[in-house]
Structures are given as structure tokens and as C-alpha cells.
């Protein structure tokens, strides 16, 4: 059943343990730090909007309306509908896509643990029918990266099973960088990497309510609450806390367990999340890169250098960046792949190549934009100064540039550049471009796995005049 906005807000008053800036927040729905994040999440419950409802919802096999984030793509049309949803969905809805990762692993899991595969399918239906939101809970603290999980000074530096009981398991550890953890209903936990036989206790996956006893969420955001949207056009509307999630001897019933020691499947679980997360990252990359082109063109025109070689060259580089990403996403969808159970997903190689291209070149794209814009990106006065009877006239006088460009418009363009690339939201973006969906190494690994190396070697041998044995 679809939730109303009021029902979603009410569902967050469930006694979850939440901290922010040293404060234990009893009710996040009444706290100013969560005002903007909750507004962001509510956009995914905007079912009364006749323009958004067809994008946000679909009919299940049972004929019931559900949020489209739970629709398993079975055709290219379904896949394209999902991409349209992702363009119009908040990051809270975005991380709920973790259920696509779970459902993509069911076929492989069923061969080893059919009961755990059934748990995933049951949990998927439970979350879908309740219109719940879930977080991707994957990255461990990791400690000394030169050691395996079981070799750490503190065995809890990777989340692990500390007790197996007749009715379930008890887990202990922490998971980092969990976007929207305090605003979801379910925390879907997966191993952070492949495991060995000695690390079997760390090969654990499950879903647990955010208010489960022993779960504690410590929050941090890139933005202060209730920012001025003139000065912070992005941060004022996109602020979302990242959770440092503690599992302090948390009990997980067997019916919510997806992996409990089956170490050979740990890597498959970790990898399943990467595809859909990187797909979302590429989709966002296309939008971000196009905005950067627009900002570069605007700021160059406002300065009167829109036709100068340095502007034309820099903007051409940004266009090439944006178009490469757009065409890569289009290629990934047209050349989709299908799992044994019929789930359609973007081409794995194409998505990883696109995500790598975005991440590896993002900071260079920002450099071009900053070079074209100049120092006002950081030193431009604020809206309050523009509206001041004393300071305002000076700003209107000395920020005059190309005739016909209003001072307020020029300031808004600079504020967008700063906020998107050099300040609150921009700082978050600089790190996320590299790390979301795994760092550059993760994409390199997947490219090696997905690329047809034998075919490439055969072509190389043919050119070299070597007859294959």
C-alpha cells in the first residue's frame, strides 16, 4: 500500500537511536537538522501529483500500485522507465534500489541456500507492499587495509557474526558512509568485499529495521540546516545526512538473514550492489556534466569572452565529457543484459566504463569550469549584501559586465558554480564522484571481468601474424 507523506513522517517516530553533532535526537521529525532531508525524502511520496504519479508508481503482478523503485525490469521499456524514475527520485529512493541488487543475486544464492533466497524474496515483497525505504549498508571500518578481516587488532572492524542462535544471529560492527540511514525503514547489510574461509563470520547479509535494539546512527552532512537558497541553490534543497551506523550486538532473526558464513558468495553480494549504484551514478553524471556545460557557457558570455579561444576550447572539452557520458549510458541500455530469472539490467562493461570515465575526469572538468569562471567563485558577496541599502548599490555598480546581464542573474550563476563544485554540496560531490559505487579500482576490476579479453588477444595475434594454437 502506498504511503502518504504524513504516514512516512509518522513512520520515522519509531524510537530509532540517532545522534548528530553530539546530540541524541529523540524525534528526527521535529529537529531542524532533519527538516531539509525529510523534505527531500517526501518527494518520493508525491503520489497526489498527477505528473509524477506515472513516473513514481507501477502495477504489481497482483494489480496493486507500488513505488516503481521495486519494479524488476523485464524489458528494455521497463529499464528505460526505471531510468526516468531515477531522474525524478530523491537519493532516499535511490538507495532503496538495494533491493534490485538483492533480487539479482537470488538465482546464484538459491543454488547454495534456497532458504536465504526465499528470505530475500519475502523481504522484497514486505518492503514493496509497505512502501518502505531502505539503505545500502555495505562499507566496513576496515582498520588496517593490509590485513584481512579476521587479522585486525580489533575483530569488530569488519561487521561479523558473534553468536549463532536457534532463532537467529547476533552481529557486531560498524558500517560507514551510509546515505540516508536515519531516514529509511530498513538497513540492508551486505559484505564489503570477497571473503576467505577464515573470514566466514564476516560473510553476512541481512535486513534489519532502523530502530532495532543495538542499532545506533551517528550523522554528518555536507550542509548546515536551512541554508539560504540564493547563496546555496543546490545545498538548500539536496542536504542529506550520511550515517555512521553501529551494530552493537544486534539480533537478526533467521527469516531476515541472507548470508551467514557462506563466504564464497560474499563477493557476489558486494558486486551485485555496484551495478545499480553505478547506473545511478552515471545517470547523475550525465545531468551534472550537462549543467557544467551550461554554467561554463553562461559565465563566459556574462564576462564577454564567450567567443574567445580559451572559452571555446574549455567548453568543447566539457561538451566532449558530457556527450561521452550520455552516449555511454544510452549504449548500456540498448545493449542490456538479462539474468537467468529474467531481470533486465544495463550492460555491465558499459556502465563500469562510463562510471570510470566520469570519476576519473570529474576533477578536470571542475578545473575547466573554475578556470573560466575566475576567483568570484569563492569571493562573491552574499544575497544579504546585494539587498543591503548600503552595500547593494556598490555590488550592482562593480559587478556590471556584459550589457543586459542583471547583477542578480550573474550572482546566481556564480553561486551555482560555487555550491555545485566548491562548497557544501560541491565538496560532497567531489568525493562522491570518486567513491560512490566503489573507487576507481572497483571499476577497473569490473572492466577486466566484463571485457572479452580472449577476443582482443585473438585479434592482436592475427595482426602479429601468429596462428592460434
> Structural class of the secondary elements?
alpha+beta
Beta strand % = 15-25%
Q: What is the average of the pLDDT values?
A: 94
Count of separate structural domains: 2
* Name of the CATH class of the largest domain: Mainly Beta
Describe what you observe in this structure.
This protein has 469 residues and is α+β, with helices and mostly antiparallel strands. It folds into two domains: 5-261, Butyryl-CoA Dehydrogenase, subunit A, domain 2 (Beta Barrel), CATH 2.40.110.10; 268-456, Butyryl-CoA Dehydrogenase, subunit A, domain 3 (Up-down Bundle). It has 18 helices and 14 strands. It has helices at residues 5-11, 35-42, 53-56, 76-87, 91-95, 98-112, 114-129, 235-238, 266-302, 309-334, 348-373, 376-379, 383-386, 392-398, 407-421, 424-435, 440-450, 453-463; strands at 17-20, 23-25, 57-59, 65-67, 134-137, 160-165, 168-179, 186-189, 204-209, 215-220, 242-253, 257-260, 337-338, 344-345. The chain has a six-stranded mixed β-sheet with strand order 2-1-10-11-7-6. The chain has a four-stranded mixed β-sheet with strand order 5-8-9-12. A hairpin with a 2-residue loop joins β1 (17-20) and β2. It is globular and about 75 Å long. The mean pLDDT is 94.
Amino acid at each position: 500500500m502506498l504511503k502518504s507523506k504524513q504516514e512516512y513522517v509518522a513512520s520515522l517516530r519509531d524510537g530509532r537511536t540517532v545522534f548528530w553533532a553530539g546530540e541524541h535526537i529523540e524525534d528526527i521529525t521535529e529537529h531542524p537538522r532533519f527538516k531539509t532531508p525529510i523534505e527531500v525524502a517526501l518527494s518520493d511520496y508525491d503520489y497526489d501529483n498527477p505528473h509524477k504519479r506515472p513516473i513514481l508508481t507501477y502495477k504489481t503482478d497482483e494489480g496493486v500500485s507500488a513505488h516503481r523503485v521495486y519494479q524488476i525490469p523485464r524489458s528494455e521499456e521497463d529499464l528505460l522507465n526505471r531510468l526516468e524514475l531515477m531522474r525524478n527520485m530523491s537519493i532516499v529512493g535511490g538507495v532503496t534500489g538495494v533491493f534490485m541488487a538483492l533480487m539479482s543475486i537470488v538465482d546464484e544464492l538459491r543454488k547454495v541456500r534456497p532458504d536465504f533466497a526465499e528470505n530475500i524474496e519475502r523481504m522484497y515483497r514486505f518492503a514493496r507492499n509497505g512502501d518502505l525505504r531502505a539503505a545500502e549498508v555495505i562499507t566496513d571500518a576496515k582498520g588496517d587495509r593490509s590485513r584481512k578481516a579476521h587479522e585486525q587488532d580489533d575483530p569488530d572492524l569488519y561487521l561479523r557474526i558473534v553468536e549463532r542462535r536457534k532463532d537467529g544471529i547476533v552481529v557486531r560492527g560498524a558500517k560507514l558512509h551510509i546515505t540516508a540511514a536515519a531516514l529509511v525503514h530498513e538497513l540492508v547489510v551486505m559484505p564489503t568485499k570477497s571473503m576467505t574461509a577464515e573470514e566466514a563470520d564476516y560473510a553476512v547479509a541481512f535486513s534489519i529495521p532502523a530502530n532495532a535494539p543495538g542499532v545506533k546512527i551517528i550523522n554528518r552532512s555536507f550542509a548546515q540546516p536551512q541554508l539560504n537558497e540564493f547563496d546555496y541553490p543546490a545545498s538548500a534543497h539536496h542536504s542529506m545526512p550520511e550515517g555512521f551506523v553501529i551494530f552493537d550486538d544486534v539480533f537478526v532473526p533467521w527469516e531476515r538473514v541472507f548470508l551467514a558464513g557462506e563466504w564464497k558468495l560474499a563477493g557476489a553480494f558486494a558486486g551485485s550492489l555496484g551495478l545499480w549504484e553505478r547506473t545511478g551514478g552515471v545517470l547523475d553524471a550525465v545531468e551534472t556534466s550537462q549543467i557544467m556545460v551550461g554554467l561554463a557557457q553562461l559565465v563566459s558570455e556574462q564576462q564577454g569572452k564567450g567567443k574567445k579561444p580559451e572559452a571555446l576550447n574549455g567548453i568543447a572539452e566539457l561538451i566532449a565529457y558530457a556527450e561521452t557520458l550520455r552516449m555511454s549510458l544510452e549504449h548500456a541500455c540498448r545493449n542490456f543484459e538479462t539474468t537467468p530469472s529474467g531481470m533486465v539490467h544495463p550492460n555491465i562493461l558499459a556502465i563500469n566504463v562510463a562510471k570510470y570515465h566520469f570519476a576519473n575526469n570529474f576533477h578536470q572538468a571542475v578545473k575547466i569550469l573554475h578556470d573560466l569562471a575566475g576567483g568570484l567563485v569563492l569571493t562573491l558577496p552574499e544575497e544579504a549584501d546585494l539587498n543591503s541599502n548600503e552595500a547593494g548599490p556598490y555590488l550592482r555598480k562593480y559587478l556590471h559586465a556584459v550589457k543586459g546581464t542583471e547583477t542578480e542573474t550573474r550572482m546566481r550563476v556564480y553561486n551555482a558554480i560555487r555550491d555545485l563544485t566548491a562548497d557544501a554540496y560541491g565538496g560532497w560531490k567531489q568525493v562522491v564522484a570518486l567513491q560512490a559505487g566503489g573507487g576507481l579500482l572497483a571499476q577497473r576490476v569490473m572492466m577486466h571481468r566484463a571485457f572479452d579479453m580472449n577476443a582482443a588477444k585473438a585479434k592482436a595475434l592475427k595482426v602479429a601474424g601468429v596462428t592460434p594454437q
